[in-house]
Amino acid sequence: MRLENTFEVAAPVDAAWNLLNDVPNVLPCMPGAELVEVVSESAWKARLHVKLGPISLQFLADVSREEMDEQSGRVVLLTRAREAKGRGSAEARIESAMTATEAGTKVDLFTDLELRGAVAQYGRGVVADVASTLTRRFADCLARKLADGASTPGEHSNASAPKPVNGFRVVIRALLQSLVKGIRRR
Fold it and tell me: How high is the pLDDT of residue 66?
């Protein structure tokens, strides 16, 4: 499935570019994510904690930067994740494109996502709305980092272990947003 999300940060393109390409620094902005290992300048291992009601999921992910074009403000990351207890897997190709705006920088995210196994059954119908909610949280975190001046590569925070993203709460919020959208269309 293809997901498209957009957000803006009140920072110049070069500052946003530096931060978004510093994966170890920006990964903690993803709700429930933690960096496990820096494999190379363009490859990382991460862990993602998700809680869907009584079900706790932990994904182990390999993330790699496949393309990077500073001139056009475009980056492509590939992620291959597997649920630690074998309940499924996911693959994502995430393309981000940055453009300058009057207020700062607009970031367009294009994600091609494939879910497999039991994981695919947990929430396939609400993935787009959940992704939208998580993108907003991600953008808010980036804005805070940029405001704090953490846009210089190598300034990695040593935050404690991440709180699992409560997928149940996010799914309920996404369902409510979908209902409101449906009512507004009528």
Answer: 96
Own/partner contacts of 59-65, CB < 8 Å, gap of 24 or more, are 59/83, 59/84, 59/90, 60/36, 60/84, 63/23, 63/27, 65/21, 65/23
Q: Provide the number of structural domains found in the chain.
A: 1
CA atoms within 13 A on the CB side of 68: 12
Q: 181 lies in which domain range?
A: 2-185
What's 79's domain CATH number?
Answer: 3.30.530.20
For residues 111 and 94, is the Cβ–Cβ distance under 8 A? yes
Low-confidence ranges of the chain (pLDDT < 50): 150-161, 166-184, 186
Q: Say what the pTM is.
A: 0.73
Which residues partner with 157 through β-bridges? none
DSSP code, position 11: S
Which tens digits make up the pLDDT trace of 144-166? 888 776 444 444 444 444 555 54
